[in-house]
Amino acid sequence: MQIISELAASVAHEVRNPLQVTRGFLQLLNVNTTEKTKKYLSLALDELDRASDIITDFLTFAKPQLDHVAKLHLATEMKHIEGVLLPLTNLQGGEIVSNIPNDLYIKGNSAKFKQALINIIKNSIESLRGKGQIRISALKERNDVVIVIRDNGEGMDEATVAKLGQPYFSTKTKGTGLGLMVTFRIIEVMNGSIHFSSELGVGTEVIIRIPFVQDERIDV
């Protein structure tokens, strides 16, 4: 894993440099050009950004160590996540209903935790049909914080659920599968677990368990 991490960091750095240079020149060309050409340049910029996102996911998967670990207030974290995803939810015609108690705390890196949850909830949003709903709840169960995300979207069959988190498996046309791989890795590094259950035409449920934090002090 150490070798993979070092290789991932090296590849990400070497590939990002030409991507950034290319993106800069495309932006310059986009200033003084025809509307038809702008359309093509816009598509090229979108694909460059997608390539950059894939590199970021690859790097996070290979090196998911959580720097800047802190005590996270779950209700606050979830409020930020909902704010980020609200435009996409509205676009899909759905809604997010959440019930997060105010006394739940976990240990982790805020940015990485948000990334993991956004990956999951975004998949739920994209699976909604018309005015669908995503329900997010949390509770303390023994020594764990249990986060439950349910949607009434398209759902998946057992074979598809079994493949979630595998390299390069995705239900999306342009998907790489790295998003859920990253999510699994982040939750794993947080000493947690994640479980998917789904039924076609009914929806999907995701249950995440992460150790509950009581002590104000966190030893990193």
TrEMBL record:
Residues 10-214 form the Histidine kinase domain. It catalyses: ATP + protein L-histidine = ADP + protein N-phospho-L-histidine. It is an enzyme of class 2 (transferase). InterPro entries: HATPase_C_sf, HATPase_dom, His_kinase_dom, HisK_dim/P_dom, HisK_dim/P_sf, Sig_transdc_His_kin-like_C. Keywords: ATP-binding, Kinase, Nucleotide-binding, Phosphoprotein, Transferase, Two-component regulatory system. Its EC number is 2.7.13.3. Pfam families: HATPase_c, HisKA. GO terms for molecular function: ATP binding; phosphorelay sensor kinase activity. The keyword Ribosomal protein does not apply. This is histidine kinase. It comes from Xylanibacillus composti.
